[in-house]
Amino acid sequence: MPLWAGVSSPSQPSRALTRVATAENEEDLLELARGCRADTIERIVRGWKLGNREDEVDRENERYASRELAVFPDGDGMYVIRGQLTPELGVLLMRAVEAASDALYREKDAEHVSAGTTSRDAAQRRADALGLVAERALAVGFGTDIGSDARPPLSGTRAERYQVVLHVDVESLEAEGGLGRSELQDGTRVSAETSRRLTCDASVVPIGHGADGSILGVGRRTRTISPALRRALEARDGGCRFPGCGLRFTDAHHVRHWADGEETSLDNLLLLCSHHHRLVHEQGWKAEWWGRERHAAFVDPRGQVHMDTRHVPPQLLPDPVAS
């Protein structure tokens, strides 16, 4: 039995040490295991020299050949990510997620990300950050225009940012409709209210089906939010309208959904970040216009009202001094 076998549990540093242990370095590893924390041992082992240069090259080629990534839905409709990346790809992904996570962190109000922030909050923000990385990558594109001077928009309508195909029946989009078809292209079922949220800010292609399920016709693709309307929204709202938020990475939300016969206009739209957009659709909140000034009001499931009362500069006369 190796000298270091009982130093720590198999699930911690001892398992890491087995990857580099030899008869020659066993005594050194024993001292290392006694005097270092588990995360320190893991870091040292990852940088341990194994054999000569040729051995390291062979090991690196083996690691490169074993790279893989899988993304698949589980039984609950969530997506699971599993894989292993080469060191440089892994670090690149980590840095991209960290950068996106920092951007989301900075956009949030300080009181929501202060000392009360938990490790779970940080983990959820990293998950949101990975989605932001994907959105930004697809906004830039992967064609020959990457090197052009045109800068991708910070935010934009979902049709411009990425393509996620959602198959949904009209009745699922209506507020009082039934539970018709509502699924992603791979067959993953999403709730009808999730479909209403996703189609708030998306392009729509109507497809007619016959009684036997055959396709009778495909309509023209239309954007629910035009680029001009999006620019007007961003100029008016300046970010998420939920009280105390202001996040600039936003979706356009229909106060009254277009599927219920309402129009897609500036008077029926406001900007919400993905978190607060989900609150309004899936978690029972309501967004309304209140008062002559049309303040955005958010009513929580208990009936309490939260107002977006951001300061609006007063309208001045063309020559206020002369008047």
SSE diagram, text form:
Blueprint: H1 13-17, H2 26-35, H3 38-46, H4 53-65, E1 68-73, E2 79-84, H5 87-107, H6 119-140, H7 158-161, E3 166-168, H8 170-173, E4 182-184, H9 192-198, E5 203-204, E6 207-209, E7 215-218, E8 222-223, H10 227-237, E9 250-254, E10 269-273, H11 274-282, E11 286-290, E12 295-299, E13 305-308
Antiparallel strand pairs: 1-2, 3-4, 5-8, 6-7, 9-10, 11-12, 12-13
Helix pairs in contact: 5-6, 9-11
Describe the sheet with the most strands: 3 strands, antiparallel
Give the proportion of residues in helices.
25-40%
**Spans with pLDDT under 50 lasting ≥5 residues?**
1-11
Q: What order do the SSEs take from the amino end to the carboxyl end, as H and E?
A: HHHHEEHHHEHEHEEEEHEEHEEE
**CA distance, first residue to last residue:** 95 Å
- β-strand percent reads 15-25%
General form: extended
If you had to describe this structure to a student in words, what would you say it looks like?
This protein has 323 residues and is of the alpha+beta class. It is built from eleven helices and 13 strands. It has helices spanning 13-17, 26-35, 38-46, 53-65, 87-107, 119-140, 158-161, 170-173, 192-198, 227-237, 274-282, and strands spanning 68-73, 79-84, 166-168, 182-184, 203-204, 207-209, 215-218, 222-223, 250-254, 269-273, 286-290, 295-299, 305-308. The strands form six sheets. Strands 11-12-13 form a three-stranded antiparallel beta sheet. It has a two-stranded antiparallel ribbon with strand order 1-2. Helix 5 (87-107) packs across helix 6 (119-140) and helix 9 (192-198) runs antiparallel to helix 11 (274-282). It is extended, with a radius of gyration of 27 Å. It starts with 12 loop residues before the first helix and ends in a 15-residue tail after the last strand.
